[in-house]
Write a structure and sequence with these properties.
The structure is a single chain. The protein contains six helices and no strands. The protein is mainly alpha-helical. Helix 2 runs antiparallel to helix 3. The C terminus is likely disordered.
Length: 206
């Protein structure tokens, strides 16, 4: 019951502070691009309006409009500089994230390698090799003791038995390789068949 009415734990967010910073930079970049488009539209409109005022011989108003246009061009140039900085900062943060992932991978690999080195300790390996060498030498000594227990007569008896086995194998008859004759099937003698006349005769006599 307590688990039902208790507060559920919020899932851990995978979004890092770097992710949030990159998102904010991209949003500012998009807003700055929209601002640039707005200024460019205003510049084109003021340029056309200045031409119209000059055609109408309204030089002062055209000059004032061109001053406004020059100010907006400076704003557009500053916007380009700020946009370039935002782009560079965004790329730097994204590359930093990649570097962090690489470093984390190196840490994990080094930790795994250290565990392997702990298992493959040099002293432990030397101990295993020494024990293996001792086991081989001990087995060799046992084999020598077993073979040394046989007397000269026993060795001669073993040699004689070996020769006897070889002689028996050499004297075994050869298996014939000739082809066996084919069997002729004997035909059964045919039984005489009764004729109809004889059967009728038997019936009359009865």
């Amino acid at each position: 019951m307590g688990a039902l009415f208790g507060k559920s734990k919020k899932p851990v967010s995978r979004i890092t502070e770097q992710d949030k910073a990159i998102l904010q930079l991209k949003q500012q970049r998009d807003k700055l691009k929209q601002y640039q488009k707005k200024i460019e539209l205003n510049l084109e409109r003021d340029r056309q309006l200045a031409k119209k005022l000059l055609a109408e011989d309204k030089r002062d108003r055209a000059k004032l409009l061109l001053r406004k246009k020059k100010y907006q061009e400076n704003l557009l140039q500053n916007a380009d500089i700020q946009l370039e900085k935002l782009e560079q900062l965004t790329h730097d943060l994204e590359f930093t994230q990649i570097e962090v992932q690489v470093i984390d991978g190196l840490k994990t690999g080094n930790a795994a390698l250290k565990k392997v080195h702990d298992i493959l300790n040099i002293d432990e390996i030397e101990k295993i090799l020494d024990e293996t060498k001792e086991g081989i030498e001990k087995q060799r000594e046992i084999d020598e003791l077993i073979s040394g227990q046989l007397s000269e007569e026993d060795n001669e008896a073993v040699e004689a038995e070996l020769e006897a086995i070889l002689d028996v194998e050499g004297k075994l008859p050869n298996v014939p390789t000739d082809k066996l004759p084919d069997l002729v099937e004997e035909k059964e003698p045919e039984r005489p068949q009764r004729t109809k006349s004889s059967s009728k005769k038997i019936a009359v006599e009865a």
